[in-house]
Amino acid sequence: MLQSNLTVLADKLGQDLEPSRVYTDYLRRIAWGTDASFYQKRPQIVVHPKTEAEASSVLSQCYQTNTPVTFRAAGTALCGQAISDSVLMVAGLHWNKFKVLDGGKKVQMQPGVIGAKINAALAPLGWKFGPDPATIASAMAGGIVSNNASGMNCGTHHNSYKLIDSARIVFADGSILDTASEQSREAFKKEHPEMVQGIESIRDDIMSNDALVQRIKRKYSIKNVTGFGMNSFVEHHDPIDIILHLMVGSEGALGFLSEITLNSVEKKSHSASAMVYFDSLRGACESIVELRREAFNETNAAELLDNFALKAVAESKYDTPDFLNDVHKDVTAVLFETFGDNQEQIDANVAKMSAIMKKHGLYRDVEFTQDAAEITNMWAIRKAIFPLAGSMRPVGTSCIIEDIAFPIEVLPQATIDLQNLSFKHGYDDAVIYGHALEGNYHVIFAQDFSTQAEVDRFDGFMQAVVDLVVGYDGSLKAEHGTGFGMAAFVEKEWGTEVYDLMKRVKNTLDPSGILNPGVIINDDPFCHAKGFKPMPAIHDIVDKCIECGFCEPHCVAHGLTLSPRQRTAVSRVMKTLETTGKEPEVLAELKKNYPYYAIDTCAADGLCKLGCPMGIDTGKYVKVLRAEGASSMDKKISDFTADRFGTMESVARFALGATDISRKIIGESGMGAITKIVRSIAPGMPVPLWTEGMPTRGKALPKTKTQGDIKAVYFPACLNRMMGTSAKHDDQRSLPETIVSLFEKANIEMVSGEKPKGLCCGQPWESYGHDEAADRKSDELSKWLLQASNNGEYPILVATTACLERMRRACDSRLKMYGPEEFAFEFLVDRLSINKIVDKIAVHPTCTTRKLGMAEKLADLARLCATDVVVPEKVGCCGMAGNRGMNYPELNEHGLRHLKEETKDKGCTHGYSVSATCDVGLTTHSGIPYKNILTLLDKASSRKQL
Fold first, then answer.
1. Which residues in 868-895 are b (16+ Cβ under 10 Å) and which e?
2. pLDDT tier for residue 674 given thresholds of 50, 70 and 90
3. Which segments of 250-342 does DSSP mark as H helices, in order?
4. 545, 611 contact by CB (below 8 A)
5. 40: β partners
6. What is the pTM of this model?
7. Smallest Cα–Cα separation from 440: which of 415, 465, 421?
8. Per residue in 887-901, pLDDT tens?
9. What angle do helix axes 564-580 and 618-629 make, rounded to 10 degrees?
10. Distance between CA 922 and CA 928 in Å, rounded?
11. Angle CA(607)–CA(610)–CA(616) in degrees, nearest 5?
């Protein structure tokens, strides 16, 4: 239960925003109480403002009630700075707008924009986003800037601190400063004289002490985000400029960045990369030191992977050399990258760098590559080291990552000392990797927190690491932020004089102390050794998950109910409460709400696997939970429908026929109104919400027999046998009719066995966790396909990719099955005369299209057939997931909330996809009719004249 004062605050926040965006239930508080760190807190209130005005209102309310508040964007932070035990304000999915300015030279962005999205917009213009953390495909701008996260290439010269141009800042009292506006700057000085004078006083005290100035300059000559950015006082004079730069790396402890403008970095036209293997860790480090000294301009990145990192890589899903399985224990790899304006410059850079590397004991010859696929794979490996190493930890332990930097001149010995220190404390498989060109390492190790002895071992190791880094005058935090993990040691690194100045900064800009308290400034010497995240074993499918959040950009339910990470996190808390017997009322509420939030509204499409370096498919875990939760009656119904699916087909076609009559009588709106009433009266009944995208009754199968000089099999999926097209579409032919037309025009003999009525790939049963029934159906289909294809001799067209994905896993391996885009390019395009349709169309790559790696081929087919093709950037999974989006229409609506603005509103007249059920939702939420991509090919093609 919430404390009474927080209940009042939650009510006020609900009035100012919307009650639906203020969470006080246990499940969502726990779900949002986890980030990528090994800490966990339980926020009392989770609030999702959509605008700067709403964010200001939230802060004002918290300020008036003296209630602490923490900000969160993507939640990829690694030191606990994005979690709270009070109010958590989330600025994620609602804050995803950005503008490219001055032809790419600058970008103005909200805090919820994913870094990779910015790069995608800048790349065609010859620019890139300066910070390049390994998490850039999931981390958001607000977190990147607030932590001064840097990454592989940017060093200290292209990080957020160096590139920030301006920002809109919301302070603890709700007041707003726009540093790009002279009017706002002057008004702020008049309205907040105590803040301005306080900053000026700190500045003057620092600048009057030359020894202190030199120390600050020295500390920031290498990566350093320990504490507040005190270089702001040395490098800037105007108090507003100082405040702006203090916000970078402040971890939300000084203010909320509602808008950020960063200068971009020029993107070189040529590059080359090499994974270079050295005989020893010391040799690799000595090579990097010399490269830094003699070839710094040529060496744009040097990412070290120690021997333990290589072990994690060797066991990963990525393409790795076979010899990694047999390397000796000292072999160390460094991933190098060099940029240039032309090929001659690249060749010269490679020659100079290679000559230096050869002097330091190579395990294998240096081999640079400019092959895009090879480079992408190497850098994907590098970016995945943290979760890959984390996946090797024993089940039940936490994955710890530390982030330090040494002056480059001491790197070889400091690295050896760091490794020996981990061995001394019993972390024999600790991974050392990172941005060695900047002296910046990350240390990963597995930690059990179940006993006090283990907690003490962790604390002892942390104290020893602090002593080592401080002894070398390095940085205890280089780019991950101070958080709770290193807050206790800020004073030890900087000394009392500077630490007291940091306290003055906090007291000046957040005098009430409500912004992310305990982060950066913390008087508890053991704050790093408490509040650990529970990591009990729950299922082998997800036990390796470290809750990094890489999955979330791929999840259609994220922001509506729970993301894959949150499903796992809540499951772990439930398991912990069951084991300990603590908080039974919390456990009871979690068990009550978990089915809807975690199970029912999971599309189970497996796209989360694409973002996960370990390839964890949380959808499979959800299917297991669905199977475990199925009643005996559910299983009987599953078996009944599987065994009598032919009859069920007829029933479905009859029902759709009845609705065809009804929609003609009472109209689409009348049908929608009736289903809404039924769903409200009987919420447990699986009654789909009627929309204008609903299909008509499927037509009887046409004669699936054509003549030609090659043979191919067409399997009409069950959905295409039952469902027709949307009544909105100007082409009312069924998909089988369209495919017969294509085969005839392409002179392909369509081969078929007995009628396919009752046949199904089994996907509908698998999605509900009924694997036995699903396998029976796929076995039946496999036999039919073998007969029709002459035991796999003839190619098979499967026009629905969801079916194709299941069939490739479950059916006989002799069968040669093709999706519609594959079949078109392999067997149709060259046999047809194609005239592009002058039209602007939209294409939707379905989940399975993406999983099968066919999304670009789908778009290419559309571009072959139409003059203007749009692939919406803000749409991933549509949320239909078979019939799930019909039974839970909020999932489909959430997944397609941006579709209309990217399609119909931009002039698209038709849309194309590869799934009949997806077409229903796409048609409903775009305002334009969708059909199978082969319909477009048929429309744009004619028989080739010989």
1. bbbbbeebbbbbbbbebbbbbbebbbbb
2. low
3. 281-294, 307-314
4. no
5. 34
6. 0.93
7. 415
8. 899 999 999 999 999
9. 50
10. 8
11. 85
User: Looking up tokens 């908080």, which residue turns up?
Assistant: 583
Tokens 């939970």 belong to residue: 625
Q: Which residues contact 592 (CB under 8 A, 6 or more apart)?
A: none
Checking phi first, is residue 758 left (phi over 0); if not, alpha (psi -120 to 50) or beta? Answer: left
Q: What confidence tens digit (pLDDT) does each residue in 325-384 have?
A: 889 999 999 999 999 999 999 999 999 999 999 999 999 999 999 999 999 999 999 989
Bridge partner residues of 274 (DSSP): 336
Per the listing, tokens 């049963």 go with 765
* DSSP label at residue 542: T
User: How many residues can be counted in the chain?
Assistant: 946
Q: Which amino acid is at 233?
A: F
Q: What is the mean pLDDT of residues 22-48?
A: 97
* Residue 273 DSSP code: E
Residue 140 has pLDDT above 80, yes or no: yes
Q: Is the pLDDT of residue 677 over 70?
A: no
In this structure, are strands 796-798 and 817-818 parallel, antiparallel, or unpaired?
A: parallel
Which span out of 134-138, 314-318, 677-681 was modeled with the highest average pLDDT? 134-138
The per-residue DSSP string of 347-400 comes to: HHHHHHHHHHHGGG-BSS----B--HHHHHHHHHHHHTHHHHHHHTSPTT-EEE
* CA distances in angstroms from 601 to 57, 379, 552, 689, 876, listed in the order given: 31, 34, 15, 15, 16
Q: What is the DSSP string of 336-351?
A: EEEEESSHHHHHHHHH
Whether residue 529 is predicted with pLDDT greater than 60 in this model: the reply is yes
- Which residues, at least 6 apart from 694, have a Cβ–Cβ distance to it below 8 Å? 659, 663, 671, 688, 726, 920
